[in-house]
Amino acid sequence: MKVIRIDKNDWAEGIEKIRKTYSLIGPVKEKFYHIFANLGSGQMPDMEFTNSRISPKYIIYPQSEIILKCSMNAEEEDYKIYREPEDKEYKEKAVLGIRPCDADSLPVVMRNFDTDEYKDPYWLRAFETTTLVGLACDAPCPSCFCTSAGSGPYNHKNLDVMLIDNKDHYLAEIITEKGEKLAEAAGWQDKAEGIADEIAKRKSDAESKIESNVHTDNLAKQPLLDLYEATSIWEKAAFACINCGTCTYVCPTCWCFDIQDEVYGREGFRIRNWDSCMYPLFTLHASAHNPRGTKLARLRQRFMHKLKYYVDKYENGIQCTGCGRCVRLCPVNIDIRRICNMMNSYDPETCTCEATVS
Ligand code: SF4
Ligand code: SF4
Fold first, then answer.
1. Residue 224: CB within 6 Å of ligand 1?
2. Which of 327, 323, 326 has the alpha carbon at shortest distance from 99?
3. Which bound ligand lies closest to the C-alpha atom of 282?
4. Would the pTM of this model clear 0.90, i.e. be above it?
């Protein structure tokens, strides 16, 4: 793999060059936390950040997205006939500073949006036109558990370029053709030789700083109904939950949405909006029946989906990359690490489980 040295004195000049081809998105400080936002003319990403409060999933999967439009003018021939909006643009964009755990959420989410039966054109076009310039993570939070959730602080497998902060310069691993194209556009060509051992050491040091983990080895073997009926897990966990939905909104791997039809003036819009399995309205039927009418049922759905249904359906790990956002931001400290370890160790004979975070 090619590794390039980018002097930090040349960083801003390179960013300005790629701005000619790509629209840029990067971490910016808002009040006392960071978000990913469009970088306006001359604006630089703030690379001195731990991670953004809300995940950057919106870049490919917007929180609200018009997916179809129609005329509401009865005199027009295509009155009320929905069509894809003609003004929908998919320009090349580069996301600067995305963390490996967030990039690793993309193949997880893709399993929902790119299937043999259905390919979501909006998600796929946005994904294909996005170049991910990641930033390796040297100072993970105590709540991060990426190394036991299929990711890692130096995991570059879902990035196009991975930057490693090395004091006065970045080392940039060029991973894909998209990454190569971006490095060329930026004029970053100064090859760094003989640094493989140094990078391996940095990776190992970063991984050793991850303080917590989840145990997932037994999840696939657990009978689904035993976990579903494990009230000793769900009653305790659901007791404090206020169904605020924070955990699902900040999560890079949650993909649930709702579709709304709206009329504005003489146009109709079909809009896809993020939704949350933690909200009663999400599953409320027109008949007034709600299959998940209690908060226990909703909380159980979130964890069963991430840690059992997904595991069984895709046989490819859990629906979580260990970013730790839901652990940090749940107002009542419901901790997916603890729930995962409980589900993994649950014994249906005795209805007991390990409830520790290690
Ligand atoms: S963030 Fe916590 S309280 Fe809010 S819905 Fe999620 S688990 Fe419940
Ligand atoms: S479930 Fe929690 S820790 Fe896992 S990816 Fe989502 S927000 Fe991050």
1. no
2. 323
3. 1
4. yes
